[in-house]
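<purpose> Linking amino acid order to shape
<body> The protein record starts here
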Amino acid sequence: MTVIADSADVSAEAVIGDGSKIWHLAQVRENASLGANCIIGRGAYIGSGVVLGDNCKVQNYALVYEPATLGRGVFIGPAVVLTNDTYPRAIAPDGSLKSAHDWTPVGVTIHDGASIGARAVCVAPVTIGRWATVAAGAVVTKDVPDFALVAGVPARRIRWVGKAGVPLVEQGDLWVCPETGDRYIEDNETLREAE
């Protein structure tokens, strides 16, 4: 059952998946598409044309600007910002006010299972890989590989994480999740699941 709080501002042109919940003061703009069972927290903003896969969580006061695309099971922490303007300016060089037609929005792409920690900023255009984790407060300016844990300003990879979000432990030629026992292989600064 879909739930939309009375104080939420949801465009009639948005597509809201079955079982999704949109809480107080959240705004979902026209042509946004939310998959099934998504949760949009208090005061969150989902921009025009943004796409969320099934089972995404966008926490309180997060700002997801168009044309962001989130895969399935993506977590967006409180007060996260996904930007959309590489060279922002309020005015043109001649001093005139810029309009929506004076720039081309670029998006952040976040793949399945990834998590973005509280108050992190992802500066478009960047891609966050599958099951990656962006630490709270990080500023992401470069693509993040699958299973990477990045932190800092600018964000850099500091560890590898598995699907459980727990840092992996190196065991010989493999990386192992202490939570699930899943095994991974590192190759040329990337990580993949072992067969």
Summary: Residues 163-195 form one domain. The chain has two domains: 3-161, 163-195. The two ends are 38 Å apart (CA to CA).
